[in-house]
Amino acid sequence: MTLPAAVLNRAILPAPVLLLLAACGSPPPAEAPLTEAALAAVTDDAGAPRDQLARQIDDLFTLPGLGETRAVVVMANGKLAAERYGEGYDKDTRFVSWSMAKTVTAVLIGMLVADGKLALDAPAPVPLWQRPGDPRAEITLRQLLQMRSGLRHTEAGDPPYESAEVRMLFLDGRDDMAKWAEEQPLEAEPGKQFEYSSNTTVILADIAARALTTSNKPEARRKAVADYLRIRLFGPLGMTSMVPEFDASGTLIGGSLMHATARDWAKFGEFLRLKGRAPGGEQLVPVRWVEAMVTPSPARANYGFQIWLNRPLAQGEDQPLFPDRAPESLFSLIGHMGQYVLVSPEQRVTLVRLGHSDSAERPPMLQQAADVLELYPER
Fold this sequence. Notes:
Blueprint: H1 15-23, H2 36-40, H3 50-62, E1 68-76, E2 79-85, E3 95-96, H4 101-114, H5 141-145, H6 164-170, H7 177-182, H8 198-212, H9 218-237, E4 243-244, E5 258-260, H10 262-273, H11 287-293, E6 308-309, E7 331-335, E8 339-344, E9 349-356, H12 362-373
Antiparallel strand pairs: 1-2, 1-9, 3-5, 4-5, 6-7, 7-8, 8-9
Helix pairs in contact: 3-12, 4-8, 8-9
């Protein structure tokens, strides 16, 4: 039985056909030789079979139906295992975080809690909510971190300009995003209902600014937060490329707009893998805070403090990761259109994938990322 060479392609040939070929005495098709770019992506510290790692990463860039991969960085056992970029991008390119920024904001809040400036289970210090009889006064910092504030924040809308996120970022809330987000009423009892919301993270960023300065002047707020992040987090981690954005009122746009190189996103993932420790050994945020970040919320099994967890969900719930293919201890920063920092402590691996994948392309792209991770044994 002979098939044309064009058909014998592993990207389109289903497994049953391969079995049929084997039964007919025909050998399975040979894989195409790895290109120089694929081989050059893998370092001497791969921590996995070199050719297999090169091929799996190459597939992230070349297989159809996965979207556009612009950057991949793999850290294994604390060392650079692989690094590759799409055309027009390189190690110095700053990539927008989108919602990966939320996890940075959670670490910012954790440092302020450790400093004694904020309390995790006390009512969130939002002045607007402290009026007598305002039910929002019951919202705690923990509930905000776990996206269960109960506020009327609808992340996606139809049409899009009706969503709370779009209105806050680009329309009537854009000049003072925190004020707009904080003015929204409750739609559920605080703590009872999970609702993913960039608006909630901007409230956390506003709380951080108020904890660092008593000034309401935009420049003072920007400087207080930017300096704190640079001195206490980005500097010790060597994240020299990080550029956070602020709105006109001086509030960190902590839910969606930070910019950094793929290498620096990998450094942040490794910092979380090491439970808040910098490469030099300094503990930047308490171990117990990172452990709390990756503990499931009572309202959502696969969400912690502004971070996604690789936990199974009830049937019918959207699954943004792959609990059937990686340890439950894996967690991830996830950003709009396919930005991922996947951290697997049991495998001692951090995988950064940045690019552009639509809703149909993300699931197969994630399965390919899982193929990369499966090269690393659990320890």
